[in-house]
Amino acid sequence: MRRSRGPDPAFRDHRVRLPGPGNLPAELNRFVGRVDELAALTGMVADARLVALTGMGGVGKTRLATQAGRALRDRFRDGVWLIELSDVREPHLLDHAVAEALELADHSGRPTRDALCDDLAGRELLLVLDGYEHLVDACAPLVARLLRRAPGLRVLAAGRRPLGLPGERNLPLLPLPDADAGELFADRAGCVVAGFTVDGSNSAAVAELCHRLDGIPLALELAAGRLRALSVQQVVHRLDDRFRLLTGTDPVALPRHQTLRTAIGWSHELCTPAERLLWARLSVFGGQFDLEAAEYVCSGRDLPAEDLMDVLSELVAQSVVVREETRAGVRYRMLDTVRAYGADWLAALDDTERLRRRHRDWYVGLATWCELDWFGPRQDEVAARIDVELPNVRLALEHSLEVPEEAYLGQFLAGTLWFFWVGCGRLSEGRHWLERSLAMPADHHDARLKALWVTGYVAVLQGDPAGARRALEQCRAEARYAGNARAAAYAQHRLGCLALTGDDVPRAETLLRAALTAYREVGELNSNVLMAQVELAMAVAFGGDLATAEELCVEVREVCADHGERWARAYALYVLAYAAWTRRDLAGARQLLTECLVIDHAFHDLLGAVLAVELLALVTVDEGDAAEAAVLQGVAAGIWPAVGPQLFGSRSFNRPHELCARLAREQLGDAGYEAAVRRGGALDLDAAVTRVLGGLPRPRGSAGGGTAPGTGEPAVSPAVNGGETAG
Hints:
Elements: E1 2-3, H1 9-12, H2 35-47, E2 50-54, H3 61-72, E3 80-84, H4 94-101, E4 104-105, H5 112-120, E5 125-130, H6 136-149, E6 153-159, E7 169-172, H7 178-192, H8 203-212, H9 217-225, H10 232-247, H11 257-270, H12 273-282, H13 291-298, H14 305-317, E8 321-326, E9 329-334, H15 336-348, H16 352-374, H17 379-388, H18 390-402, H19 407-416, H20 418-423, H21 427-438, H22 445-461, H23 465-482, H24 485-501, H25 505-522, H26 527-542, H27 546-563, H28 567-582, H29 586-602, H30 606-622, H31 626-639, H32 651-681, H33 685-693
Parallel strand pairs: 2-6, 2-7, 3-5, 5-6
Antiparallel strand pairs: 1-4, 8-9
Helix pairs in contact: 2-3, 5-6, 7-8, 7-9, 8-10, 9-11, 10-11, 12-14, 12-15, 13-14, 13-16, 16-17, 16-18, 16-19, 18-19, 19-21, 19-22, 21-22, 22-23, 22-24, 23-24, 24-25, 24-26, 25-26, 26-27, 26-28, 27-28, 28-29, 28-30, 29-30, 29-33, 30-31, 30-32, 31-32
């Protein structure tokens, strides 16, 4: 398993990243107080492999934990990684969420937990687990296993209770003392009201407010947000009323966690009816959401869509909703505690199920739009959009599969997201949702057929021929029975891919030609159809007809140019690069492969990227740099375990690799070759791409003298990026 970035690293986290390894966000406002706690926490992490930072909601656990991570970054070679788990509602998604946060990709079909353990085994890093309290029973065994397998790993867990593992150190976090609370309130108030200061006119009110809110940071920040409309004295007066209303006559006698609920409840009561209603309805979102989603899901007769933006703006002004500028546009989110409070109100209104259905319907529609738009110039935008919407997509899938009579929507959604599972490096999670959806009974044949052929597609890429054949044969048989020619074409296409990776070249060519004919008959043209043509080019190349293979890929490249499609274009370029190599046009082959690698890396396609690296190694040895070629083969060898069987276990796909290795060994000797391969194995894909694009000096001309294998063609993806726009 190797770490690899998504379509654009900026889309992985809406916040600006700190430089260096890890994913800690840069601070957006000043860290106030906690000097002693920070020193204690960093010391505990230095001394113990597992430290729990515990306390009530809103007390500042996340902020202190990330601050400690920043202070400790230089002590961990592989960085500090924040794993935010508050949006992960189901234990079965825990491993996927951790892998996602670590930017790890595994397409191999192994259990995700095994892949995590293998990847972390040799690394030195700190994991900061945040918001895990609702997943303690699932988190504890995962953390225990990771710590056993990875001696260089340390874990800082920030939640409402410890994990309860042997050797765990615990630091309970109390609210801020009065002085720090006053400083925090003044700092945040200054962000709301320009020029705000604590002076003789308001110092007593500030002190009283901090005391009444018991120094809880979230409560103080909510109170500061009210200064947009109220004075400090007015805030104190209204807060006093809310305390009596919500906690009775003796608030001091109640548990401290009630103080936070009181603060949020007070802020809730200060909202208008429309603002309270929107607050409750927004609680159905997971993670970020945009204005269009909020308008569709939350509007109604009592909250018109045309008024929703103004109401949402007021919630932002009051710090109930956080507005964030991202490269994907303006987005919003609610703090977890604030969202939970809204969810309680939504339940009290007996409106939760209706809002969850509307939420599900929006994301089914979004996925449908993205699938259609994938075949066009907005592929980058589509990839980024689904990536940032993943928490909401998961909620939509989960809701569909909770209601038996709506399971077909889960099948449809899981199948429609084929472009994300395959095109953006999410094979393992995609297989998870596809198989869960297919296990549910559903009467909508089209949705089931789509889920079946996508399952087969994913299984082919994971190197699971038995699983692929089972799903695809079932899809083909059911499609014929249902009269669904489109689904039958997809099943036939993917069976052709399976034959190609299994070295049954004649059968592959027959099936792929038949699939292309079927696609034309039903009027299908998309990335899947273009990839079928690329795969046919590979099959005829394996049969020795490189000229026809090149003609097929030139046509694919032209269609891609007409439609602005980049994904299938990368694989056409790959085959064309091999053809250029056979003509001894090494400069042309390198140029084509460089463009191919840039596209594959941008889309987080490990399969396409590793194949490009393999062929670059062959070109490089012929350019006269055997050492660099061996380094590239080492890079590829390190990436393959996260993809599946190396070069699909195929003799045909493996011939160029064997040729490169033989030529490099002849020039370097066995010891020199193995040493260079080991150097490459220490590089991840990001480093390899930088190396390739960095213009490293290379000898000109050809010294390797390699010739094309008689029936060999480099490993082009057998099927990476197809798409069914209907059916």
